[in-house]
Automatic annotation (TrEMBL):
Nucleotide-binding listed as a keyword: yes
A Pfam family hit: HATPase_c_3
Name this protein carries in UniProt: Molecular chaperone HtpG
Alphabetized PANTHER family for the sequence: HEAT SHOCK PROTEIN 90 FAMILY MEMBER
Organism this protein belongs to: Plantibacter elymi (nom. nud.)
Entry keywords, A to Z: ATP-binding, Chaperone, Nucleotide-binding
SUPFAM superfamilies: ATPase domain of HSP90 chaperone/DNA topoisomerase II/histidine kinase, Ribosomal protein S5 domain 2-like
InterPro entries assigned to the protein according to its UniProt record, in alphabetical order: HATPase_C_sf (IPR036890), Hsp90_fam (IPR001404), Hsp90_N (IPR020575), Ribosomal_Su5_D2-typ_SF (IPR020568)
Family in the record: Belongs to the heat shock protein 90 family.
Keyword NADP found: no
């Protein structure tokens, strides 16, 4: 066996390159050094327990760095475990294992491989905060204790300690770090008491062995930072304690807590239901612990996509971490766990529906989008909750059950644009439902399969316009002339005019356009604002679709302004002789109807509005036609 005690030997690796790889591409930052030491210590304790059933339960003792002050000397950072320890051969091999490659993929394999490989990579992370690493260790397997010293210049020494020193050392390992003397961390702040206490609490407070931090002001009384993982033992925890933990996690009291148990991957925890809706498009990140050690507070792939109404915190032993130990490997185990968590959330919602329907209504009132996302594709859940789902109707917002109790039929539009156009003139006895919101149309179309006897009908703008009552035959000549005259006024904006009778009487005009017309208008608007060649491209597409005819993708049907013959203003316009006043009045009714239907004004619409307003103001102050024109 070669004697490594006589002279420094080089690592079998470009150490600076590996540390750069760790800091830039594996780890998120230098603060993970303490997490890696905690993980190494936990692994060492677990290895000793596996070999010796009488071994102590395990203890990790952290002594932060104390900088020199005045005449008092400082002290280095120390991390001690009472785990299995290292033999001389294991210590000599420690970093040679890592040195076989500096590729991330190989480091990833080492992380998931043998104990020494994981230990060595974790130890290397300490070079992000220290220039020198000293490891003193006594193996539970016997033999002399060893001292391994690694330097940031890429060399190390190793020596066996004498019998007296070995006998005086407890079984386990101690890692000693001297702060870096250059770079932004040269002050040793990451090794000081405040930071170390915070990092130890963040990463290791739920470990199943004692984690203690020495306070420089009371070095003989280290502080134990462990707390009970109440989120992991929900069945043995009072509901109040669990919700209090959730309040600490969320910053506000949770709506409820759902127990998560996935025996297949050794995953246990709690999903806390948010008391308010998250921002649109937000996906709740989960907090995941690996054997009590924090993996990350930002795991995005643990929950199903639809479960954005919960924040999950779990501990697992069966899910695999990536090389950085900050994310989970995307594999079958993770997919299985995700599906199991989804099933638990569905069961919770079903239990609310069966046992606490009023609480379910409160939940839906907060998280209706999440519930609709599930109900759109899950028949069992949809059958239980669909009656309580809120919908927007022309008679106001109500639940599906309330709407069915009034009409027995669901008449809906497929888009919000269509709903806005016709909601004001729909017969109150037969209201329509806005199916344009996310998931609403899918749910409405599935209602006959979920509730016996329900009929569902899709309503279009053209259908409703045809259902509006035409003027009496006695008024046919006047209304036909009004339609022709007003259509000529609006020819510039490609809008035809129809005259109908509808309620309310004070609604003089209604702008209606089916989806194909609305799409054409959107293309026209895009072409008007697109730069250079793109304007020509959009215009060419618009021309092609307009010429497609009945067999093509779209037909070039004009939008319509529907004038209400019940309105006194419309009947007066039909007898108006002043062409300028008539023209400007029709233009203003057109723009007013556009705005009432939440339609954006194009440039030509704004020009029309400006001209009409200017002329009508001129007429009101006494200008004549010649002066206005």
């Amino acid at each position: 066996m070669p004697d490594h005690s006589r002279a420094p030997l080089p690592f079998q690796v470009d150490l600076r390159g590996v540390v750069d790889l760790l800091s830039r591409h594996i780890y998120s930052g230098p603060r993970v050094y303490l997490r890696e030491l905690l993980q190494n210590g936990r692994d060492a304790v677990a290895a000793r327990r596996a070999e010796d059933a009488t071994a102590p339960p395990g203890r990790l003792l952290i002594t932060p760095h104390v900088p020199p002050s005045g005449s008092e000397a400082g002290s280095p950072f120390r991390f001690r475990d009472d785990g299995v320890g290292l033999t001389r051969d294991e210590a000599a091999e420690l970093l040679a294992t890592v040195g076989r490659s500096s590729k991330r993929g190989d480091l990833d394999e080492l992380q998931r491989g043998d104990y020494l490989g994981r230990f060595g990579i974790g130890l290397l992370s300490c070079f992000m905060v220290a220039d020198t690493i000293t490891v003193r260790s006594r193996s539970a397997r016997g033999g002399p204790a060893i001292e391994w010293i690694g330097d940031a210049d890429g060399t190390f020494t190793i020596r066996e300690l004498d019998d007296a020193t070995t006998a005086a050392m407890p079984i386990g390992s101690e890692v000693v770090l001297d702060p870096r003397i250059d770079g932004p961390l040269h002050d040793g702040s990451l090794l000081g008491h405040g930071t170390v206490r915070g990092l130890a609490t963040t990463f290791g407070r739920f470990l199943d062995l004692d984690v203690e931090v020495v306070d420089p002001s009371a070095p003989d009384h280290p502080v134990r930072i462990n707390v009970d993982p109440v989120f992991r033992t929900a069945e043995a925890t009072t509901r109040e304690a669990l919700l209090a933990f959730g309040e600490d996690l969320l910053g506000t009291r949770p709506f409820d807590a759902v127990e998560i148990v996935v025996p297949g991957t050794g995953t246990r925890g709690t999903a806390f239901v948010l008391p308010s809706p998250p921002p649109p498009g937000a996906r709740q990140a989960s907090r995941v612990y690996l054997g009590g050690m924090l993996l990350s507070e930002q795991i995005d792939d643990l929950l199903p996509e639809w479960a954005f109404f919960v924040r999950c915190i779990v501990d697992t032993t069966g899910l695999r971490p990536t090389a950085s130990r900050e994310q989970l490997v995307q594999d079958d185990a993770l997919e299985f766990t995700r599906e199991a968590i989804g099933s638990a959330l569905r069961r919770w919602i079903l239990d609310l529906a069966r046992q606490r329907p009023h609480r379910l209504q409160e939940f839906i009132g907060v998280h209706q989008l999440g519930i609709k996302a599930i109900a759109a594709h899950d028949d069992d859940l949809a059958s239980a909750v669909v009656r309580w789902l809120p919908i927007e109707t022309s008679a106001g917002t109500m639940t599906i059950d309330e709407h069915l109790s009034q009409t027995g039929v669901i008449r809906y539009t497929a888009s919000r644009d269509e709903f806005r156009q016709i909601a004001a003139v729909v017969d109150p006895a037969s209201p329509i439902v806005n199916g344009g919101y996310v998931y609403d149309q899918e749910i409405l179309e599935r209602l006959p399969h979920l509730i016996d006897g329900v009929r569902v009908e899709r309503v279009t703008v053209a259908d409703e316009l045809d259902n509006l009552e035409p003027p009496h035959l006695d008024d046919l000549a006047a209304t036909t002339a009004l339609e022709d005259r007003a259509s000529r006024v609006l020819a510039e904006v490609e809008c035809r005019v129809s005259v109908r009778r509808y309620r309310p009487d004070d609604l003089a005009a209604l702008y209606v356009a089916d989806p194909s017309v609305l799409r054409r208008l959107e293309r026209h608007r895009a072409a008007s604002v697109a730069p250079g060649i793109w304007s020509q491209v959009v215009g060419a597409v618009d021309s092609f679709l307009a010429d497609a005819g009945p067999g093509g993708a779209e037909t070039d049907t004009a939008a319509r302004l529907c004038l209400n013959w019940n309105a006194a203003l419309v009947r007066r316009l039909a007898t108006l002789d002043d062409d300028l006043v008539f023209e400007r009045s029709i233009q203003l009714l057109y723009v007013q109807a556009l705005l009432a239907g939440h339609r954006p004004l194009e440039a030509r619409d704004r020009r029309m509005l400006d001209a009409a307003m200017t002329d009508l103001i001129g007429l009101s102050v006494g200008l004549d036609d010649k002066e206005l024109r």
